[in-house]
Amino acid sequence: MTSRIGIIGGSGVYDPGQFVLEKRLDIDTPYGKPSGNILLGKLNEVDVAFLPRHGEDHQYPPHKVPYHANIWAMKEAGVESIISPCAVGSLNEHHKPGEIVIVDQFIDFTKTREYTYHHGPETFHLSIADPFCPAIGQEFRRQGDRLGFDVHGHGTYVCIEGPRFSTKAESRMFQDYADVIGMTLVPECQLAREMGMCYCSLAMVTDYDVWKDHPVNFEMVMETMKANLHKVSQMLENALPRIEGRKCGCASSADGAPEV
Asked: Which pLDDT belongs to residue 201?
C-alpha cells in the first residue's frame, strides 16, 4: 500500500483525525527511524501518507527532527510529492497573522544540520535555484483564492536553527532578505529534491516575529495556528484531487539520487 502524495505536518497542523486512516507503516531507514509512523489513508478520497514532523508527542525540536529518515521513509512509502504545512513568523508588514504564504524561495541560516544524502566518494551538486514545485504551489494559490482566504503566492522563507526565537537585531536584519521566518524548511525541502520529489510549503503566519515589538512565544504561535487551521485543511481537501498524478520537472534535477 503506497501513496503518491505525502503531508509532513508542522507545529499544530497535524491532525490524523481528519484522515480516513487505513494503515500505519513502521519504517526503518539507513538514517534511523523517522519521527513517527507513516499514516496511510484518504483525504477527500485521495490516497495520502501523513508524517508528524515533530513526532506524535512533539518530542523533536526543530534542530533534532530526523529529516533524512523522514524523507527517506516517505520515498519508500511511494510518495512523489510532499506538502508541508508549517508555522512561520512574518518579516513583512503585509504578511499578517492568519494569512498563508506559498513559499517559493528560501535562505538558509541554520548552523549544525546535515544537508545532503551525498557524502562521497562521488560529488553530487544539486540544482535548487527554484526549490519548490511551481505547479503544486499554483494549485494551492488557486484554491486559497477560491475559498476567500488571504494567500500570498510568493515569499522567501529564512530558516534559522532554533529552537530559540530571533533577537530583535536578527529579526530586523532578516527583514532585508525574507518575508517569513521559521525553523524546519532546511534541509527538508532540499532532501526531498535530492530524492526527486516535488515539495510545496504552506506557511501559516502566526506572529510578527520580534521586529514589531510584539512578544513571541510558543503559546502564541499555537493559539494563532489553531484559530486558522481550518484554512490549511480546506485548501488540502480542495487541492489534493487536482494535484494527484500531476507531473512536472522537479525530478529532473535529482539525477544520481540515492536508491531506496
From this structure: 96
pTM (whole model) above 0.70: yes
Q: Quick check: 3 pLDDT over 90?
A: no
Residue 112: C-alpha distances to residues 20, 183, 229 (Å)? 37, 12, 31
Beta-bridge partner residues of 88? 205
CB 210 within 8 A of CB 216: yes
CA dist 260 and 241 (Å) reads 27
* Residue of 222 and 138 predicted with greater confidence: 138
So what's the pLDDT on residue 227? Answer: 77
Q: How many domains does the chain have?
A: 1
- The 8 Å CB, 24+ separation contacts for 217-221 are 217/165, 221/11, 221/12, 221/87
> Would residue 259 count as lying in a domain?
no
Active-site residues, by number, are: 207, 209
- Residue ranges making up the domain that contains 200: 5-253
